[in-house]
Specification:
Layout: E1 5-8, H1 16-31, E2 36-39, H2 46-54, E3 57-60, E4 70-73, H3 80-88, E5 92-95, H4 99-113, E6 117-121, H5 127-136, E7 141-143, H6 151-154, E8 158-163, H7 169-179, E9 185-188, H8 194-207, E10 212-216, H9 222-234, E11 238-241, H10 249-252, E12 257-262, H11 268-284
Parallel strand pairs: 1-12, 2-3, 2-4, 4-5, 6-7, 6-8, 8-9, 10-11, 10-12
Helix pairs in contact: 4-5, 8-9
This protein binds iron/sulfur cluster (SF4).
Length: about 280
């Protein structure tokens, strides 16, 4: 549009796990005659969650809020005990845990069973990390950054590592470097998923080519926040927006190239709406 170039990252938006979880929820809607609830929002995108709510899929915080019917486990997974408890209460469990998260949970359990002290790299309050830590056992530790490691407590032990699927490679490298000299043996499972890797690489590529970056996705989406942080390291004019309406005209002043990327739970329509909004404002300027 005029002098403005808009580049959309070659890998952005819905990932395999999110598309699969939405399809599983759709199938549950079609086949179930009883109420359907998701444990937490099915994906970290308010517009999609609201649309599903209008069609009868409620998002609840815990099993106590579900009297009967079907409970959908979202992509992040849950501690295995939650699934057992849901079944014990007579609920139908539809498991939409992303297969990449399931692999990370199994690695965590295998490390625990083999006698490793498991270090989980991830955000302490993130539901996926709660599931990983539960699989890793009570002796596991969760760190968001190597500075949080209790080095004295880990020295000389057999240490195993699993990683929240949406972490960055830079964080994993820092943790592995910090642990290698500490443990008697350190076994690192790189459980960052392929979609995360592709989106992060593509976002960084775009951020290096433009004067402004817009990262589209829910503010509660960990992978979207991480994309924004990575882009900001390369292009300080990086803004995280949930929708096109949040774009401010002054951001675009004096800018002749805009890069757009989006988290794994952002639908194509929201990416397209942001592209159109940027082009519209450029045409008016
Ligand atoms: Fe699965 Fe990766 Fe998507 Fe998470 S970001 S749902 S782990 S594919």
């Amino acid at each position: 549009a005029g002098r403005l170039t808009v580049i959309v990252a070659r890998s952005a938006g819905y990932c395999y796990g999110v598309e699969r979880a939405l399809q599983i929820t759709e199938n549950a809607l079609l086949s179930s005659r009883t109420p359907i609830a998701t444990l937490g929002p099915i994906i970290h995108n308010p517009a999609v969650v609201n649309e599903l709510a209008a069609r009868g899929v409620s998002a609840v915080d815990d099993l106590d809020a579900i009297a009967a019917g079907t409970v959908v486990v979202r992509t992040h997974g849950v501690p295995p005990a939650v699934i057992q408890e849901a079944r014990r209460r007579g609920l139908v469990v539809v498991d939409a845990t992303c297969p990449f998260v399931t692999v990370a949970q199994r690695k965590a359990a295998a490390l625990r069973d083999a006698g490793y002290v498991v270090v989980v790299l991830g955000e302490r309050d993130h539901p996926e990390v709660a599931g990983l830590a539960a699989c890793a056992g009570p002796a596991s530790v969760v760190v968001e950054d190597p500075v949080q490691l209790d080095r004295a407590a880990l020295r000389g032990l057999r240490i195993g590592v699993v990683v929240q699927t949406t972490q960055s490679y830079a964080s994993l490298s820092r943790l592995a470097s910090a642990l290698a000299p500490l443990g008697r043996e350190t076994l690192v499972y790189n459980t960052i998923c392929e979609a995360t890797q592709q989106r992060q690489e593509a976002a960084c590529e775009v951020a290096g080519e433009v004067q402004l970056v817009l990262v589209v996705g829910g503010r509660n989406s960990a992978n979207t926040r991480r994309l924004a942080a990575l882009c900001r390291e390369i292009q300080h004019r990086t803004y995280h927006v949930e929708c096109a309406q949040e774009i401010q005209s002054e951001w675009l002043q004096g800018v002749d190239s805009v890069g757009i990327t989006a988290g794994a739970s952002t639908p194509d329509e929201e990416i397209e709406a942001v592209v159109e909004a940027v082009l519209r404002r450029a045409a008016k300027a």
